[in-house]
Design a protein that fits this description.
InterPro entries: Ras-like_GEF (IPR008937), Ras_G-nucl-exch_fac_CS (IPR019804), Ras_GEF_dom_sf (IPR023578), RASGEF_cat_dom (IPR001895), RASGEF_cat_dom_sf (IPR036964). The chain is mainly α and about 280 residues long. The chain is about 60% helix and about 0% strand. A hairpin with a 4-residue loop joins strand 1 and strand 2.
C-alpha cells in the first residue's frame, strides 16, 4: 500500500455546522455510528484530542538517525513516532473507505460536506495534522474519480475545499503551511503535520556533512540546523487543548474506521460510479 501524500490551507470563516446530533449518548456497536451523525466541530475537536496525545508521547530521541524510516528498528527505536505516522494513514485511508463504501449518493455528499467542515475547523484550531489527513483522504484517486459526487457539492464547500488543498500543497516547499505555522506561533496549542518536519530533518542530516574538510572539524552549522528543527517540534508539545472528551467519538475514530487498500478502495469506488 502506498502512503497517502499530503499537503495544508488558510481558513476563511468556518462553516456553521447544520447537523448537531448529540452522539455522546448513542449506544450500540460503533458500526452504527456514522460521520454523518457527528457534528463537524465535535469530529475536529475529538480528532485533535486524540492526535495531540499521540504527538506529545513522541520522545525527541525518536527523531534521531532516521529510525522511523527503518523497518527493522522503527518500532523499537521510534515507537511513538511510527505510531503517529500509522495513525495518519489509518485516518486518511479510513476516510476514503467511509466515502466509497457508502451506497447512497446523497449520503456520500453529506459525508464529504461534514469532512470538509471538519478539516476547516482543524485548520482553525491549529491541528494541521488532522487537516492534512482529512484532505489526504478526500484526495485519494478512488474519491476524486466520483465526478457526480463532486458535482453535487454546493459551491461554498468546493471553495473551502480548494482553499484547503492550497494550504496542504507541497509547492514551494510547503510555503503556505510554513506561513500558517509561523503565523500561529507557540502561544496556542498546535498539532503539526510531522511529514513536513521529518522531510526538513532528513535534508538537514543527509544534505550536510558532519565534518568540514580538509581538517575534519565538526560541522556545527549542521547540528545547529538539526537542533532548530527539533526545537520547533518539541515546542508544540507543551500546550494542551482543553476540549471535553466524547468517548463515543474517540471509540469511532480509533476502532470504527477500516483501512482498505488502494485496490479495494478503487473497486468500491467503481460500485459507486462505474466507468462511463
Amino acid at each position: 500500500m502506498r502512503t497517502a501524500t499530503l499537503t495544508p490551507p488558510i481558513a476563511s470563516s468556518p462553516l456553521t455546522a447544520s447537523y448537531t446530533r448529540d452522539v455522546s449518548n448513542i449506544r450500540g456497536p460503533i458500526e452504527s455510528l456514522s460521520i454523518a451523525d457527528i457534528d463537524p466541530k465535535d469530529l475536529a475537536q475529538q480528532l485533535t484530542l486524540l492526535e495531540q496525545r499521540l504527538f506529545v508521547a513522541i520522545h525527541i530521541n525518536e527523531f534521531f538517525n532516521h529510525s522511523w524510516c527503518d523497518k527493522a528498528v522503527k518500532d523499537k527505536m521510534a515507537p511513538n513516532l511510527s505510531g503517529f505516522i500509522r495513525w495518519f494513514n489509518k485516518i486518511a485511508y479510513g476516510i476514503s473507505g467511509i466515502i466509497v463504501t457508502t451506497s447512497s449518493a446523497s449520503a456520500r455528499v453529506t459525508i464529504v460536506k461534514r469532512l470538509i467542515q471538519a478539516a476547516q475547523i482543524c485548520l482553525k484550531i491549529h491541528n494541521y495534522n488532522g487537516c492534512f489527513e482529512i484532505v489526504a483522504g478526500l484526495e485519494q484517486s478512488s474519491v476524486q474519480r466520483l465526478k457526480r459526487l463532486w458535482k453535487a457539492l454546493p459551491n461554498k464547500y468546493l471553495q473551502i475545499y480548494s482553499h484547503l488543498t492550497t494550504v496542504i500543497s507541497r509547492s514551494d516547499n510547503h510555503r503556505t503551511y510554513r506561513t500558517c505555522l509561523q503565523a500561529t506561533g507557540a502561544s496556542v496549542p498546535v498539532v503539526p503535520y510531522l511529514g513536513f518536519h521529518l522531510t526538513d530533518l532528513v535534508f538537514a542530516e543527509d544534505g550536510n556533512p558532519s565534518y568540514v574538510k580538509p581538517v575534519f572539524l565538526i560541522n556545527f552549522a549542521k547540528f545547529r540546523l538539526i537542533s532548530k528543527i527539533l526545537g520547533e517540534i518539541v515546542q508544540y508539545q507543551h500546550l494542551q487543548y482543553e476540549f471535553n472528551e466524547i468517548p463515543r467519538i474517540h471509540e469511532f475514530l480509533k476502532n470504527g474506521m477500516v483501512m482498505y487498500s488502494e485496490d479495494e478502495l478503487y473497486l468500491y469506488s467503481l460500485q459507486c460510479e462505474p466507468k462511463s
